[in-house]
Amino acid sequence: MGRHHDAGVSEIIGTMLLIGFSVAFFAIVGLQVQKLPPPDTSPQVDLRVFGNSTNHVMVASLGGDGVPLATMEVLLDDTTCALTQGPADDADGTREDGNGLLETGERVVTSCAMDGGRMLRVVGETAGGRAVLVLAHLPGA
Length: 141
Fold this sequence. Notes:
- It is a single chain.
- This protein is an alpha+beta fold.
- It has two domains: 4-35; 45-137, Sandwich (Immunoglobulin-like), CATH 2.60.40.
- Helix content is 19%, strand content 38%.
- The chain contains one helix and ten strands.
- Strand 1 (45-51) and strand 2 (56-64) form a beta hairpin.
- The longest helix has 27 residues, at 9-35.
- The radius of gyration is 30 Å and the shape is rod-shaped.
- The model has no long low-confidence stretch (mean pLDDT 77).
């Protein structure tokens, strides 16, 4: 008769072991996740490409990180287009404040014409690293 008060002990021990293993498992998984390196940040920039009145490729920044002009390349197919320098407030040319970054509201004009049927790439370096910032296929004329 003395055994009736010990009837639930195995269920309690089993529950305690299950809880202990669960806590240990999640602690190990949590430690492993904390050891992972943070993901690389991608460039956060919003650029638009269009033609100006002389039909040259113009790159305008609409927001995001500033793109250093010294590291920015505009490629039409595989030809590098030079960034032309113009008056600071030229309505149809370069408008950049002189700090060497293409920032929100600023634009630069390139030496390449907006020829149709060609692939245009803008490559630059931002806080997230070097990346293709714009990839566009220019429509045929």
